[in-house]
Specification:
alpha/beta, Glucose Oxidase, domain 1, 8-stranded mixed sheet, 4-stranded parallel sheet, lyase
Length: 642
């Protein structure tokens, strides 16, 4: 099947836009590779420190320098249900690597916070920054230069992008990512949402709410809705960084154990001393990044990835922006209905055909690049299979030819929607992302007076006081990465949903985030530039008519141009968001972070030998068509051109 022309055009644009940075990146990882096993570069005292505590046979292998050393980098903790199973993975990997002739060393651990625990709490203001912290922790783990390949254990929201960003900064090392799998299905998602809305209305108490939540989040594994964590796994599958079909196999099962062991063996095979050397910096290229975006759109995945995969791409010297997401969304069909875009959870999606079915359908429709390198050393079509155990041996079989449930998973020729449901909206309020795959068509255009809030708490206070029983657009500002770390505002969903269900026309416009759990209320999020950077959202006043039109891509304050330009941007005292709960430690992050459309990142692109003029700031990116309108042109993060 020939590639879809839009997919080809976007690919060509990204390749051209990224060329100087991608070339610099590839040169850097080639230089890092060198010509020998890396620990050969260590002095004897360095090397002795590196294996002092190891068993004699492993120590002998490391001394001889002929056998690969595989790093294990883990985000294990036992508070995150998704990460609790990782406690048991290192011994499995070590035994498997030893059987394959190598040695596995636990190189280091990274932080792993749960957005489900911190949602609506001060700790959520550290969540986005935890991604780059995880990347830095990964770099520290690998900095000992003892390793020839690595396996990465992580699954949840900021953790997989953070691990991948860290891995890409050691792009000469082969990498295999190892997921933990979803928890078993609890109560239905519709029942969970119903109880949350009743609690927001004051019709049930905390005891009933906690009982409902405990019946939903009840066991080891990822939460079963299709939020950022499970979107992570879908994207890693389509980028070929997992073993095929590994994403949604439940934890603590024989098949999960077999896949974990096979991942360790595969890391040995793709090391420089193995059968074929496949560095992660070559696996992640322009085509695999585009494949990830397509998979996100085709499955109605998390809006968080309009930040994270821009940052991941940047780490590999690749420049993408929201125009790319928008162009691809216009031609990528929506193939799944998984909560919050439907009733089914990821376990049901897996049973209906899962990622292998989606990958095959998109390949057959010309909407994915097959000519990529994966950890299997083959094109992407090698990942159109699902794993099984036969007589305790791991085998793969072709994905089913037909969906197990057309209400959950459909072929590309019979999609739920002709487009991916993720749209770019822009106007005099800036640029923003809106996810419409769960928003009914009659709610996709809202024109109503603005009600301005400087925090989510202020909005909820107004709701509880009965002041929001009207048509309005909630403008929640000072929620960007520079202001307070860009927390998710998912806690607003039940209240806004109640108002919409009561017949009110409501929408949310914010420079904050809403996450992969974005629901049926229209929300223009990640508004860039953020208010603290002088963004025009700070010019909105209570009563201004706001038009949010997801169909036409419009985000506009209906205010006369002369009056609009004469207004000053609002200010606020944000000091309360900068101290307590460790937030004072992240002042450097808030000061250095790029805007949302540049990935909300604290690191820059690989520097080519000859930088273009006006890109002396390490966080700057070359201007693409996304910044052609002088109203939204930035030479550096958080600075407006005049």
């Amino acid at each position: 099947m020939a590639l879809h022309p839009v997919l080809q055009a976007v690919t060509d644009q990204i390749v051209a836009r990224s060329r100087p940075y991608r070339n610099a990146y590839l040169a850097r990882i080639e230089a890092a590779r060198g010509n020998t096993v890396h620990r050969a570069a260590l002095a004897c005292t360095n090397l002795a420190h590196g294996f002092a505590a190891f068993p004699a046979n492993d120590k002998l292998k490391l001394k001889q320098l002929h056998n690969p050393s595989v790093a294990i980098v883990s985000a294990y903790n036992d508070m995150l249900s998704a990460h609790q199973p990782f406690e048991h993975f290192p011994p499995i990997i070590k035994d498997a690597v030893r059987e394959a002739g190598g040695v596995a060393q636990f190189a280091g651990g990274t932080p792993a916070m749960c957005d489900g625990v911190t949602q609506g709490q001060p700790g959520m203001e550290l969540s986005l920054f935890s991604r780059d912290t995880i990347a830095m922790a990964t770099a520290i783990a690998l900095s000992h230069n003892m390793f020839d390949a690595a396996v990465y254990l992580g699954i949840c929201d900021k953790i997989v992008p953070g691990l991948l960003i860290g891995a890409l900064h050691f792009g000469h090392l082969p990498a295999v990512f190892v997921p933990g799998g979803p928890m078993t299905t609890g109560i239905s998602n519709s029942e969970k949402a119903r109880v949350r809305q009743l609690y927001a209305q004051g019709k049930v108490g905390r005891e009933e709410l906690l009982e409902s939540e405990s019946a939903s989040y009840h066991a080891p594994g990822t939460c079963t809705f299709y939020g950022t964590a499970n979107s992570n796994q879908m994207l890693m599958e389509v980028m070929g960084l997992h073993l095929p079909g590994a994403a949604f196999i439940p934890p603590n099962t024989p098949l999960r154990k077999a896949l974990t062991a096979a991942a360790g063996k595969r890391a040995v095979e793709i090391s420089a001393q193995g059968q074929s050397y496949i560095p992660v910096g070559r696996v992640v290229d322009e085509k695999s990044i585009i494949n990830a975006v397509v998979a996100l759109l085709a499955t109605g995945g998390s809006t968080n990835h309009t930040l994270h995969w821009i940052a991941v791409a940047k780490a590999a010297g690749i420049v993408i922006d929201w125009n790319d997401f928008d162009k691809l969304s216009s031609v990528v069909p929506l193939l799944t209905r998984i909560y919050p875009n439907g009733e089914a959870d990821v376990n049901y999606f897996q049973a209906a055909g899962g990622p292998p079915f989606v990958i095959r359908e998109l390949l057959d429709a010309g909407l994915l690049h097959d000519d990529v390198t994966t950890v299997m050393g083959q094109g992407l079509r090698a990942h159109c299979v699902e794993p099984f155990l036969e007589d305790e041996a791991l085998v793969w079989r072709p994905a089913p030819q037909t969906s197990g449930d057309l209400g959950v998973l459909r072929p590309a020729g019979e999609p739920f929607s002709a487009d991916g449901g993720l749209r770019l909206v822009s106007g005099n309020l800036g640029r923003a992302i809106i996810k419409v795959s769960a928003v009914k068509p009659q709610h996709r255009v809202v024109e109503a007076p603005a009600l301005v809030f400087d925090s989510q708490e202020a909005l909820m206070d107004a709701y509880k006081a009965g002041k929001l029983d009207r048509d309005f657009v909630a403008v929640v500002r000072f929620q960007g990465p520079r202001a307070n770390g860009m927390p998710e505002l998912h806690a607003l969903t039940p209240a806004l949903t109640n108002l919409q269900d009561a017949g009110r026309h409501v929408a949310l416009v914010t420079d904050g985030r809403m996450s992969g759990a974005s629901g049926k209320v229209p929300a223009a999020i990640h508004v860039s530039p953020e208010v603290l950077a002088g963004g025009p959202l700070g010019r909105v006043r209570d009563g201004d008519m706001i038009r949010l039109d997801a169909e036409a891509g419009v985000l506009q304050a209906l205010v006369p141009k002369v009056e609009w330009q004469a207004r000053t941007v609002a200010t606020a005292d944000l000091s309360a968001s900068h101290v307590g709960m460790g937030r004072e430690l992240f002042a450097t992050f808030r000061n250095a972070v790029s805007e949302a459309e540049q990935g909300a990142a604290t690191f820059g692109l690989p520097l080519p030998l000859h930088m273009p003029e006006e890109t002396d700031n390490c966080l700057a990116v070359p201007q693409s068509e996304a910044y052609s309108d002088e109203d939204f042109l930035f030479s550096r993060p958080m600075e407006r051109k005049t």
